[in-house]
Amino acid sequence: MENIKPLSKTVKNEISYVKKLCASEDELRRFFDLGIIKNTKIETLMKSPSGDPTAYFIRGAVMALRREDAEKILVKGDD
Amino acid sequence: MIKIKKIALLGNPNVGKSTIFNALTGMHQHTGNWTGKTVETAKGYFFCNNNNKYEITDLPGTYSLYSHSRDEEVATDYIVNQKPDLTVIVADATNLERNFYLVFQALELTKNILLCITLTDEAKRKGIEINTQIIAETLGIPVISVCGRKKKTIIELKKSIDSFSYSVTEEKGELTAKKAWQAVLESEKLYEKCVKITNENYNKKDRKTDSILTSKLFGFPVMLAFTALIFYITLKGANYPSKLLSDFFNSATDEIRFFFEYFKLPEAIVNMLVDGVYKTLTWVIAVMLPPMAIFFPLFTLMEDLGYLPRIAFNLDNCFKKCGSCGKQALTMCMGLGCNAVGVTGTRIISSERERLIAILTNTFVPCNGRFPTLIALIAMFFTVNMKEPLKSIASSLLLLGVIVFGIVLTFLISALLSKTLLKGKSSSFILELPPYRRPQIGKIIIRSVLDRTLFVLGRAVAVAAPAGLIIWLLANISIGNASLLKHITDFMNPFGKLIGMDGVILTAFILGFPANEIVIPVMLMAYLATGSITEYNSLFELKNILTANGWTTLTAVCTMIFSLAHFPCSTTLLTVKKETKSIFWSFISFVLPTLTGIIICFIIATVWRIFV
């Protein structure tokens, strides 16, 4: 697959779709809690003034994820 | 016989479950609810028209029943093992999709569910239209919209609970990854079917606010400015009422004395009651009540607006570098109100290691009980010669500086703990930034004054009265040619001097163990050796008393730092014991800040004496 990249590499206002989750079972649970599964739409919002975490718009809620966590979510620009 | 039905209240954090709980039961649940998050389950009862009695349990807010954090376990455990007759799921109308997710999960565990959609007024304002009929049909459960602020909707909710057709819950399987996955998909489908957004830009304003409050340029300055402003309003506003109260109490002293003498009480007892108990008690009230009555509503306002999670968002990177959790910023903010509450609040941190760090470092943020000491010292030694309004501005900035210093200490000690006792790296962190909400001013005032101000003041008063008595006794019972108090302070003096203070100050901190508010009154009593707080009319006179006893700017600085970094008060310590269930960690929470304070004060005092 082309154009696939970690969520942490997206920029402000970029919209992307989840393609793959590279996470342990425990982390997977936590992603499920937020409704992050395959093809979930994620809009990248602002970065914290200290550079990390970054806020994302996920299923109607604003969620802040640290870089280490966002790296585990692989996304693609279009559905 | 009335059969009591058990009802569980389940929902995402921040959806107003506690509002519904309070409205149903008529209770004012406040324990551990400072973050707008229930950390302990609360129980209440209500009746319906036909005498059916219901026992309702408010479960901690949770995003799912599948994960393994502490809150989620409490909620899952309750539903699976306690088998409530009915689970009322409270869902936020402005964020239904994720809320549905919890409903689908819960449906895997029980069929007795009633969906209660809150904040419908907020959703309407944002242009979100919800078709409850479709939801009810799809889910096969009753759905009701309520607005926690309106009485009528609560009555309807009670009716639906009463008319719910209860069925015996069949044994259900466990939640599996596949089911959790499906729940997400089903939520998505249902959401698309039942919600119509008429205003596509419904959250534009929030995004805009966020882009200012969390921007690189303004994020930190705005945070500091907000805090400074709160202090400024508190200091400025509290000045006059504090003076009024202390004048009133002072002028009433003679009447009180007269009153006791009327009953022909021996003079020693009258002195003990008036000079010991009454004066300490009134000092605490006069000094504490006005700032608290101003500070707490302002703080609650920030909380209600939804600003606190943004603080955590801004500061998370610093906490990450110290190996701890960004949510520690929230418990730190709670600590500003009361450290015991901050310690309880650490339950929002899911990693056990990071939670312990947050507990052990919570006392580095000065609580409301320590503000009066800090404020008085700042006013006496640093801003005494200034004119208003410069004085109030300078005082609040200095207070802000003290708190920033406390936060820096929090970071340093957290980092130290992550490298030593609590080795480990920061785990993953997920924080929701909830929508900004229009605050309910009336409720804020009631909640903060009744639940917080009176609660904290009540505790201080309960401690101040007996403490006043003990101090009076210590000051008035003599062994040899000096009072007990003098013996104690003389004993502590060499060590006190070594770390930039003196024996009296240390004794005051030790006697202030039950409540930090009484530190300054104890000091005054000891200095004046008359065994009572003298009537002083201005900070200027107070300063004269202190300088006459050898106080310098160094003493003030060290006392302020020690006030920031010393053992937690007895209530906080008990809370630590309760939360960690460990004597070892309680002991560490006592020793760690004390040692930190002693070391810093020693360094400052030594350097000062060499160079100044």
Question: Mind explaining what this structure looks like?
Answer:
The complex is a heterodimer of chains A (79) and B (612). By secondary structure, chain A is an alpha+beta fold. Chain A has a single domain (5-76), classed as Ferrous iron transport protein A (FeoA) (SH3 type barrels). Helix content of chain A is 16%, strand content 38%. Chain A contains 2 helices and 6 strands. In chain A, a hairpin with a 6-residue loop joins β3 and β4. Chain A starts with a strand and ends with a strand. The mean pLDDT of chain A is 88. Chain B folds into 2 domains: 4-202, 3-Layer(aba) Sandwich (Rossmann fold), CATH 3.40.50.300; 219-424 and 440-611, no CATH class. Chain B has 24 helices and 11 strands. In chain B, the strands form 3 sheets. A 6-stranded mixed β-sheet of chain B has the order 2-3-1-4-5-7, sandwiched between helices. A two-stranded antiparallel ribbon of chain B has the order 6-8. Chain B has a two-stranded antiparallel sheet with strand order 10-11. The longest helix of chain B is centred in the middle third of the chain and has 44 residues, at 219-262. The chains are: A alpha+beta (79), B alpha/beta (612). At the A-B interface, α1, β3 and β5 of A face α3, α7, α8, α11 and β9 of B. β5 of chain A pairs antiparallel with β9 of chain B, so a sheet runs across the interface.
CATH topology of chain A: SH3 type barrels
The CATH architecture of chain A would be Roll
Q: How many discrete domains of chain A?
A: 1
The shape of chain A is globular
Radius of gyration of chain B: 27 Å
What's the story with the biggest beta sheet of chain B? 6 strands, mixed
Tally of individual helices of chain B: 24
Summed up, the domain count of chain B is 2
Through-space gap between termini of chain B: 81 Å
What's this, in brief?
With 79 residues, chain A is an alpha+beta fold. Chain A is 16% helix and 38% strand.
Features:
heterodimer, A: 79 residues, alpha+beta, SH3 type barrels, 6-stranded antiparallel beta sheet, 2 helices, 38% strand, globular, B: 612 residues, alpha/beta, Rossmann fold, 2 domains, 6-stranded mixed beta sheet, two-stranded antiparallel ribbon, 24 helices, 11 strands, elongated
